[in-house]
Design goal:
Blueprint (H helix, E strand, L loop, with lengths): L5 E9 L2 E12 L1 H17 L5 E13 L1 H14 L3 E7 L3 H13 L3 E5 L2 H8 L2
Parallel strand pairs: 2-3, 3-4, 4-5
Antiparallel strand pairs: 1-2
Helix pairs in contact: 1-2
Length: about 120
């Protein structure tokens, strides 16, 4: 298990708007979300275009503490309607299955990828 945990965020402008990339690592805590949510909301507020495109790189994600899972659900409920596409990068079967269920509940399109290049190509198309 990784000793480091938390989020890193980057935002880039592309032809049709902005792409926000989130890197998640370790076992996420409530404190991680307390620090991350304002950063994400600021990036969303600064984006160009009407709909959000998100790359979620979870190759180093181990899981969530219980309160962090609740935080993640709340975040999805608050901003899910703005999401046009989500590219999830992971090789973890449990996360692919979990996100497939969550993907049924969100209006945008969600696809799974094992590498960053494929995810970036799809999210920018």
């Amino acid at each position: 298990m990784t000793s480091s945990h938390g989020f890193t965020l980057e935002s880039v402008d592309v032809a049709h708007g902005s792409v926000i990339t989130v890197f998640a690592r370790g076992r996420l805590s409530h404190q991680d979300y307390q620090e991350f949510i304002p950063q994400l909301e600021a990036a969303i507020a600064e984006q160009t275009g009407d709909r959000l495109r998100l790359v979620f790189d979870a190759r180093e994600l181990v899981g969530w503490e219980p309160q962090a899972a609740v935080d993640d659900l709340r975040l999805g409920l608050r901003h899910g309607r703005h999401v046009e596409r989500v590219a999830l990068i992971t090789e973890a079967r449990w996360l692919t299955l979990l996100s497939s269920v969550v993907g049924l509940l969100m209006p945008g399109e969600l696809r799974h990828f094992e590498d960053r290049a494929s995810a970036d190509a799809w999210i920018r198309a």
